[in-house]
Automatic annotation (TrEMBL):
Name this polypeptide is given: Uncharacterized protein
Lineage: Eukaryota, Fungi, Dikarya, Basidiomycota, Agaricomycotina
Length: 137
């Protein structure tokens, strides 16, 4: 199916899509308290982003004593004097998130309404509520 939008319109749509967690939560009106860690893109070792000593330029993870270090680059090449992490891992405390979710004024209405919105009649399972087990539970 061919697109009916001009290249300029397509570019505008693509540029409106959030590219990071801050933009996404801002658009959704969500205030999240997340902890950011630097994460090695090869072995996934994490380093505290706010560590007073900073984090190394290259990953120092060793799978076992005497092994060679991972040595994957953790910082992007400096642009304007600021080297940014190549990859980040964002973490939010689950209890805090559940507390925030249940504190929403409309949460009870949304939870009561949700299963009835799922049809499951098309024969295509798109959601856990499209099955019969939870509906008959």
């Amino acid at each position: 199916m061919a697109s009916t939008k001009s290249p300029e319109e397509q570019d505008a749509i693509l540029s409106s899509i959030p590219t990071n967690i801050c933009q996404t939560t801002g658009l959704l009106g969500v205030e999240l308290s997340v902890k950011a860690f630097v994460c090695c893109p090869k072995c996934y070792k994490t380093y505290h982003l706010e560590d007073a000593n900073g984090y190394p330029e290259f990953c120092d993870f060793r799978a076992f004593p005497g092994d060679t270090p991972c040595h994957q680059r953790l910082r992007s090449p400096s642009q304007g004097g600021i080297a940014l992490p190549v990859h980040q891992f964002l973490y939010q405390d689950l209890q805090q998130w559940i507390g925030w979710m249940y504190a929403r004024p409309d949460i009870e209405r949304l939870l009561d309404r949700y299963p009835s919105q799922c049809s499951g009649d098309s024969g295509v399972m798109e959601d856990i509520w499209d099955g019969t087990i939870l509906r008959e539970f």
